[in-house]
């Protein structure tokens, strides 16, 4: 735990799996909180869902569980429920993204646990939200991306035109960051409340995915009547005949009265790669055009024709040549990099965005750390992801159990220190 982080001194109990809640708890751990991850006695499914390096240790688990303590409890058993209630009673924050059905079965909803601790901040993530007909439906990142149009907006399609879900669970991580801000807000409200009362923080994957599209999501009735015709007529017909996404977007552009034309804000093909140019404002676009020798376009409207001329000019340069040309001109620009390049980028380590860790089983590995800079109470990573059940005995001792009592709980399957079937 980081002793001087913004969340130093706080205890967080995580009942999380997969990404959204574990990632949020990891941010809190980087901020100095003590995070007790309560896993089922079979382990968080993210330990073995894919990319399992050794039994119980996956790449995915490493990325969202750094700096925590792992405690394995079967809280369906009365003795396990008693242990969990003790942890909740002592916690400042409880985080969960168990399904609504599981929360109800295990009596872990806000109304179930709030009486145990009036100061409790209770953060919960659900796929579809908490009200309306969809509340309670199961969902994952891929489903939320599909439901909100985010998958389409990200623009990745296979050769047949089928939308692709990226390896990066964007909706999950957006939800984790929203949950972090919600928990921080609730902690601030508790600090200001004379009665020090806690509250519930709700985040949905659908809401998180939509929040990432805020700059696009608008419907100005006076100008956007075209949308009804596109959605109710064009889309149905295009989908029925299996139209490629490029055709669908072409029809949309034809319908829309103010089509998006961005000759200076897009990805371009160069002689030897791809370059992203961020000349969104008129002054930045002017600097781009001057640098490319296209001064005559500066005072002209941004049109498909001007875009074609910029594309042709950029295509005449190698990527490095364009960087040398555009960076001194003050044009935001970057090569399009492959994710695998970043793992080896020492600049990210120097900047403090990536750090090295030494895992008890897997050895050294690199991971992204919380990229929030605070001058007085900094975030700082505090160790690798925990091995399964590695803090079970320590935490139970803190709850008043003797080693003999803990041995009985392990024998009865109420708690665990290692995964079933693993070597002693």
Task: Please summarize what this structure is.
The protein is an alpha/beta fold and 424 residues long.
The profile of the biggest β sheet is:
7 strands, mixed
The neighbouring-strand order within the major sheet is 8-7-6-1-2-5-14
Average the pLDDT over all residues and give the rounded result.
Answer: 92
Structural class from helices and strands?
Answer: alpha/beta
- In whole angstroms, the N-to-C terminal distance is 28 Å
| Radius of gyration over C-alpha positions, nearest whole angstrom | 26 Å
Q: How much of the polypeptide forms β-strand, as a percent range? A: 15-25%
Any low-confidence stretches, pLDDT <50, length ≥5? none
Shape: globular
Number of helices: 18
> Care to count the β-strands?
14
Helix share of residues? 25-40%
Which characteristics define this entry?
424 residues; alpha/beta; 7-stranded mixed beta sheet; 3-stranded antiparallel beta sheet; 15% strand; globular
């Amino acid at each position: 735990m980081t002793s001087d982080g913004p969340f130093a001194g706080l205890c967080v109990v995580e009942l999380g799996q997969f990404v959204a809640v574990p990632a949020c708890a990891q941010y809190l751990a980087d901020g100095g909180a003590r995070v007790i991850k309560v896993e089922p006695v079979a382990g968080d499914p993210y330990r073995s869902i894919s990319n399992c390096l050794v039994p119980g240790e996956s790449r995915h688990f490493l990325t969202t569980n750094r700096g925590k303590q792992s405690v394995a409890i079967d809280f369906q058993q009365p003795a396990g429920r008693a242990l969990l209630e003790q942890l909740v009673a002592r916690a400042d924050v409880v985080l969960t993204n168990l399904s609504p059905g599981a929360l109800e079965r295990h009596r872990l909803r806000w109304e179930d646990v709030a009486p145990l601790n009036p100061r409790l901040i209770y953060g919960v993530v659900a796929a579809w939200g908490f009200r309306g007909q969809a509340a309670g439906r199961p969902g994952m990142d891929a489903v939320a991306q599909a439901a909100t149009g985010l998958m389409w907006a990200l623009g990745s399609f296979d050769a047949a035109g089928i939308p692709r879900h990226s390896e990066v669970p964007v909706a999950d991580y957006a939800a984790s960051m929203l949950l972090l801000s919600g928990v921080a807000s609730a902690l601030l409200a508790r600090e200001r409340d004379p009665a020090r009362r806690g509250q519930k923080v709700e985040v949905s994957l659908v809401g998180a995915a939509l929040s990432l599209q805020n700059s696009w999501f608008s419907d100005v009735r006076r100008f956007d009547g075209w949308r009804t015709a596109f959605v109710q007529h064009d889309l149905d017909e295009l989908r029925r005949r299996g139209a490629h996404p490029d055709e669908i977007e072409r029809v949309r552009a034809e319908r829309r009265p103010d089509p998006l034309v961005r000759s200076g804000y897009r990805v371009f093909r160069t002689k030897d790669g791809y370059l992203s140019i961020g000349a969104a404002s008129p002054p930045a676009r002017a600097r781009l055009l001057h640098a490319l020798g296209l001064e005559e376009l500066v005072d002209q409207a941004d049109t498909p024709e001007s875009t074609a001329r910029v594309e042709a000019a950029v295509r005449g340069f190698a990527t490095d040549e364009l960087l040398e040309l555009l960076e001194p001109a003050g044009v935001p620009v970057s090569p399009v990099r492959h994710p695998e390049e970043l793992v080896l980028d020492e600049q990210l380590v120097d900047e403090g965005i990536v750090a090295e860790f030494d895992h008890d089983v897997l050895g050294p590995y690199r991971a992204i750390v919380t990229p929030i800079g605070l001058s007085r109470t900094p975030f700082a990573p505090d160790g690798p992801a925990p091995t399964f059940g590695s803090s079970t005995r320590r935490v139970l001792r803190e709850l008043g159990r003797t080693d003999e009592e803990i041995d009985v709980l392990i024998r009865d399957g109420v708690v665990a220190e290692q995964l079933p079937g693993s070597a002693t």
